Amino acid sequence: MATLLHIDTSLNRENSHSRAVTAAFREAWENEHKQSTVIYRDLDAEPIPHLQAAAYYAGYTPATDQSPEERAAFALRAKLIEEAEAADVILLGAPMYNYSIPSTLKAWLDHVFAVGRTAMTENPSLGGKPAVVVTSRGGSYQQGTPQHGNDYVQSYLHQALGTGLGLDVTFIVPELTLAPTVPAMADLVPLFEASRTEALTAAETHAKELLMRLAA
Ligand SMILES: Cc1cc2nc3c(=O)[nH]c(=O)nc-3n(C[C@H](O)[C@H](O)[C@H](O)COP(=O)(O)O)c2cc1C
Asked: Which pLDDT tens digit goes with each residue over 75-134?
Protein backbone atom coordinates (compact mmCIF):
# COMPACT_ATOMS: atom_id res chain seq x y z
CA MET A 1 0.00 0.00 0.00
CA ALA A 2 1.62 3.23 -1.17
CA THR A 3 1.59 6.45 0.84
CA LEU A 4 1.51 9.94 -0.63
CA LEU A 5 2.50 13.04 1.35
CA HIS A 6 0.63 15.92 -0.30
CA ILE A 7 1.49 19.47 0.76
CA ASP A 8 -0.14 22.64 -0.60
CA THR A 9 1.13 26.11 0.19
CA SER A 10 -0.70 28.56 -2.08
CA LEU A 11 -2.33 31.44 -0.20
CA ASN A 12 -5.09 31.25 -2.82
CA ARG A 13 -7.57 28.64 -1.65
CA GLU A 14 -10.17 29.25 -4.39
CA ASN A 15 -8.43 29.49 -7.78
CA SER A 16 -4.91 28.27 -7.24
CA HIS A 17 -3.06 26.75 -10.19
CA SER A 18 -0.64 24.80 -8.03
CA ARG A 19 -3.53 23.39 -5.99
CA ALA A 20 -5.35 22.40 -9.21
CA VAL A 21 -2.29 20.52 -10.47
CA THR A 22 -1.48 18.81 -7.15
CA ALA A 23 -5.18 17.83 -6.99
CA ALA A 24 -4.93 16.31 -10.50
CA PHE A 25 -1.90 14.30 -9.39
CA ARG A 26 -3.67 13.14 -6.26
CA GLU A 27 -6.87 12.24 -8.11
CA ALA A 28 -4.94 10.12 -10.62
CA TRP A 29 -2.99 8.53 -7.76
CA GLU A 30 -6.14 7.67 -5.80
CA ASN A 31 -8.00 6.43 -8.89
CA GLU A 32 -5.16 4.07 -9.74
CA HIS A 33 -4.57 2.95 -6.19
CA LYS A 34 -7.77 2.76 -4.15
CA GLN A 35 -6.06 1.54 -0.97
CA SER A 36 -3.46 4.29 -0.90
CA THR A 37 -2.90 6.45 2.14
CA VAL A 38 -2.68 10.21 1.66
CA ILE A 39 -1.19 12.45 4.34
CA TYR A 40 -2.31 16.00 3.60
CA ARG A 41 -1.00 19.32 4.86
CA ASP A 42 -2.24 22.74 3.84
CA LEU A 43 0.50 25.04 5.07
CA ASP A 44 -1.57 28.11 4.25
CA ALA A 45 -4.55 26.99 6.33
CA GLU A 46 -2.34 25.57 9.08
CA PRO A 47 1.11 27.13 8.92
CA ILE A 48 4.02 25.64 10.79
CA PRO A 49 5.77 28.04 13.16
CA HIS A 50 9.24 29.27 12.29
CA LEU A 51 11.96 26.98 13.55
CA GLN A 52 13.31 28.25 16.86
CA ALA A 53 16.40 27.47 18.92
CA ALA A 54 15.07 24.79 21.26
CA ALA A 55 13.68 22.68 18.39
CA TYR A 56 16.77 23.26 16.27
CA TYR A 57 19.33 22.27 18.92
CA ALA A 58 17.25 19.32 20.17
CA GLY A 59 17.86 17.81 16.72
CA TYR A 60 21.53 17.33 17.59
CA THR A 61 20.72 14.90 20.41
CA PRO A 62 19.75 11.35 19.35
CA ALA A 63 16.06 10.69 20.14
CA THR A 64 16.94 8.07 22.77
CA ASP A 65 19.16 10.55 24.69
CA GLN A 66 16.80 13.54 24.56
CA SER A 67 15.70 15.10 27.84
CA PRO A 68 11.90 15.56 28.31
CA GLU A 69 12.39 19.26 27.38
CA GLU A 70 14.31 18.36 24.22
CA ARG A 71 11.74 15.74 23.27
CA ALA A 72 8.93 18.26 23.66
CA ALA A 73 10.81 20.87 21.62
CA PHE A 74 11.52 18.30 18.90
CA ALA A 75 7.99 16.86 18.81
CA LEU A 76 6.72 18.83 15.80
CA ARG A 77 9.95 18.24 13.87
CA ALA A 78 9.70 14.52 14.65
CA LYS A 79 6.10 14.44 13.38
CA LEU A 80 6.92 16.26 10.12
CA ILE A 81 10.00 14.11 9.50
CA GLU A 82 8.06 10.92 10.23
CA GLU A 83 5.36 11.97 7.75
CA ALA A 84 8.00 12.47 5.06
CA GLU A 85 9.73 9.21 5.94
CA ALA A 86 6.41 7.31 5.84
CA ALA A 87 5.64 8.58 2.34
CA ASP A 88 6.57 6.72 -0.83
CA VAL A 89 6.15 9.94 -2.82
CA ILE A 90 6.14 13.59 -1.73
CA LEU A 91 3.94 16.01 -3.69
CA LEU A 92 4.55 19.72 -3.09
CA GLY A 93 2.69 22.77 -4.33
CA ALA A 94 5.24 25.57 -4.45
CA PRO A 95 4.02 28.74 -6.16
CA MET A 96 6.57 31.42 -6.95
CA TYR A 97 6.39 34.30 -4.47
CA ASN A 98 8.81 37.13 -5.10
CA TYR A 99 11.08 34.90 -7.17
CA SER A 100 11.27 32.22 -4.46
CA ILE A 101 9.19 29.75 -2.44
CA PRO A 102 6.38 30.60 0.01
CA SER A 103 7.74 31.21 3.51
CA THR A 104 5.34 28.54 4.81
CA LEU A 105 7.18 25.94 2.74
CA LYS A 106 10.55 27.23 3.96
CA ALA A 107 9.37 26.77 7.55
CA TRP A 108 8.43 23.15 6.77
CA LEU A 109 11.83 22.56 5.21
CA ASP A 110 13.66 24.07 8.18
CA HIS A 111 11.90 21.57 10.45
CA VAL A 112 12.49 18.59 8.18
CA PHE A 113 16.22 19.23 7.68
CA ALA A 114 17.72 17.23 10.57
CA VAL A 115 21.49 16.83 10.52
CA GLY A 116 22.46 13.16 10.75
CA ARG A 117 18.95 11.91 9.90
CA THR A 118 17.45 13.56 6.81
CA ALA A 119 20.50 15.64 5.83
CA MET A 120 24.29 15.72 5.96
CA THR A 121 24.64 11.98 6.42
CA GLU A 122 25.74 9.23 4.08
CA ASN A 123 22.29 7.61 4.09
CA PRO A 124 19.67 10.35 4.47
CA SER A 125 16.35 8.85 5.54
CA LEU A 126 14.52 10.39 2.55
CA GLY A 127 17.28 9.48 0.08
CA GLY A 128 16.05 8.41 -3.36
CA LYS A 129 12.38 9.09 -2.58
CA PRO A 130 10.51 10.72 -5.50
CA ALA A 131 9.31 14.30 -4.95
CA VAL A 132 7.03 16.04 -7.45
CA VAL A 133 7.05 19.83 -7.15
CA VAL A 134 4.33 21.91 -8.80
CA THR A 135 5.69 25.41 -9.11
CA SER A 136 3.14 27.80 -10.56
CA ARG A 137 4.22 31.30 -11.51
CA GLY A 138 2.62 34.42 -12.88
CA GLY A 139 5.21 35.08 -15.57
CA SER A 140 7.61 33.01 -17.65
CA TYR A 141 11.24 32.41 -16.75
CA GLN A 142 12.11 30.18 -19.65
CA GLN A 143 15.21 30.61 -21.78
CA GLY A 144 14.78 33.53 -24.16
CA THR A 145 12.41 35.45 -21.87
CA PRO A 146 13.46 38.70 -20.14
CA GLN A 147 13.12 37.01 -16.72
CA HIS A 148 15.32 34.03 -17.58
CA GLY A 149 17.72 33.42 -14.67
CA ASN A 150 15.47 35.03 -12.06
CA ASP A 151 13.61 31.86 -10.97
CA TYR A 152 14.95 30.93 -7.53
CA VAL A 153 12.23 28.35 -6.88
CA GLN A 154 13.62 25.56 -9.00
CA SER A 155 17.29 26.34 -8.31
CA TYR A 156 16.62 26.49 -4.57
CA LEU A 157 14.40 23.39 -4.37
CA HIS A 158 16.78 21.45 -6.60
CA GLN A 159 19.50 22.22 -4.06
CA ALA A 160 17.43 21.85 -0.87
CA LEU A 161 15.31 18.83 -1.78
CA GLY A 162 17.70 17.15 -4.20
CA THR A 163 21.20 17.80 -2.90
CA GLY A 164 20.20 18.50 0.71
CA LEU A 165 17.66 15.76 1.40
CA GLY A 166 18.60 13.38 -1.41
CA LEU A 167 15.10 13.36 -2.92
CA ASP A 168 14.58 12.50 -6.58
CA VAL A 169 12.92 15.75 -7.70
CA THR A 170 10.67 16.37 -10.72
CA PHE A 171 9.22 19.82 -11.47
CA ILE A 172 5.87 20.59 -13.10
CA VAL A 173 5.59 24.27 -14.06
CA PRO A 174 2.24 25.88 -14.90
CA GLU A 175 3.33 29.36 -15.88
CA LEU A 176 2.01 32.70 -17.14
CA THR A 177 -0.89 32.25 -14.74
CA LEU A 178 -1.39 36.02 -14.50
CA ALA A 179 -2.04 36.30 -18.25
CA PRO A 180 -5.86 36.00 -17.99
CA THR A 181 -6.09 38.82 -15.42
CA VAL A 182 -3.31 41.25 -16.38
CA PRO A 183 -4.33 43.23 -19.49
CA ALA A 184 -0.70 43.76 -20.58
CA MET A 185 -0.32 39.95 -20.76
CA ALA A 186 -3.44 39.33 -22.87
CA ASP A 187 -1.39 38.09 -25.85
CA LEU A 188 0.09 35.40 -23.62
CA VAL A 189 -3.25 33.76 -22.71
CA PRO A 190 -2.85 30.95 -25.30
CA LEU A 191 0.61 30.15 -23.91
CA PHE A 192 -0.82 30.13 -20.37
CA GLU A 193 -3.60 27.78 -21.45
CA ALA A 194 -1.12 25.42 -23.13
CA SER A 195 1.10 25.46 -20.05
CA ARG A 196 -1.84 24.67 -17.77
CA THR A 197 -3.00 21.77 -19.95
CA GLU A 198 0.55 20.43 -20.12
CA ALA A 199 0.92 20.65 -16.33
CA LEU A 200 -2.36 18.85 -15.65
CA THR A 201 -1.42 16.10 -18.09
CA ALA A 202 2.08 15.81 -16.60
CA ALA A 203 0.60 15.50 -13.10
CA GLU A 204 -1.64 12.61 -14.16
CA THR A 205 1.18 10.90 -16.08
CA HIS A 206 3.68 11.22 -13.20
CA ALA A 207 1.18 9.85 -10.68
CA LYS A 208 0.57 6.75 -12.81
CA GLU A 209 4.26 6.26 -13.62
CA LEU A 210 5.32 6.55 -10.00
CA LEU A 211 2.69 4.04 -8.89
CA MET A 212 3.87 1.62 -11.58
CA ARG A 213 7.46 2.11 -10.43
CA LEU A 214 6.49 1.44 -6.81
CA ALA A 215 4.55 -1.70 -7.78
CA ALA A 216 7.44 -3.12 -9.85
C1 LIG B 1 2.98 37.24 -2.77
C2 LIG B 1 3.08 36.92 -4.24
C3 LIG B 1 4.28 37.10 -4.90
C4 LIG B 1 4.38 36.76 -6.26
N5 LIG B 1 5.59 36.89 -6.88
C6 LIG B 1 5.72 36.48 -8.16
C7 LIG B 1 6.99 36.52 -8.81
O8 LIG B 1 8.00 36.90 -8.25
N9 LIG B 1 7.05 36.11 -10.11
C10 LIG B 1 5.96 35.63 -10.78
O11 LIG B 1 6.10 35.23 -11.93
N12 LIG B 1 4.74 35.59 -10.19
C13 LIG B 1 4.61 35.99 -8.91
N14 LIG B 1 3.39 35.91 -8.29
C15 LIG B 1 2.27 35.32 -9.02
C16 LIG B 1 2.10 33.85 -8.65
O17 LIG B 1 3.31 33.12 -8.83
C18 LIG B 1 1.02 33.23 -9.50
O19 LIG B 1 -0.20 33.89 -9.22
C20 LIG B 1 0.87 31.74 -9.25
O21 LIG B 1 -0.16 31.24 -10.06
C22 LIG B 1 0.60 31.46 -7.78
O23 LIG B 1 0.31 30.10 -7.56
P24 LIG B 1 -1.20 29.63 -7.25
O25 LIG B 1 -1.97 29.89 -8.52
O26 LIG B 1 -1.07 28.20 -6.93
O27 LIG B 1 -1.70 30.45 -6.11
C28 LIG B 1 3.26 36.27 -6.94
C29 LIG B 1 2.03 36.12 -6.27
C30 LIG B 1 1.95 36.43 -4.92
C31 LIG B 1 0.63 36.22 -4.23
From this structure: 999 999 999 999 999 999 999 999 999 999 999 999 999 999 999 999 999 999 999 999
Q: Which residues are paired to 91 by β-bridges?
A: 6, 132
Judge contact between 21 and 203, C-beta under 8 A: yes
Rounded distance, CA 81 to CA 85, Å? 6
Number of domains in the chain: 1
Closest atom, ligand 1, to C-alpha of 18: 26
Substitution site in 43, 96, 148 for ligand 1 pocket (most atoms within 8 Å of beta carbon): 96
Domain CATH number, residue 44:
3.40.50.360
**Its pTM surpasses 0.70:** yes
Residue 171 CA to ligand 1 center (angstroms) comes to: 16
Nearest residue CA, atom 31 of ligand 1? 97
Contact 121, 115 (CB under 8 A): yes
Domain range holding 136? 3-215
The length of the chain, given as a count of residues: 216
Main-chain dihedrals φ then ψ at residue 53, nearest 5 degrees: -55, -50
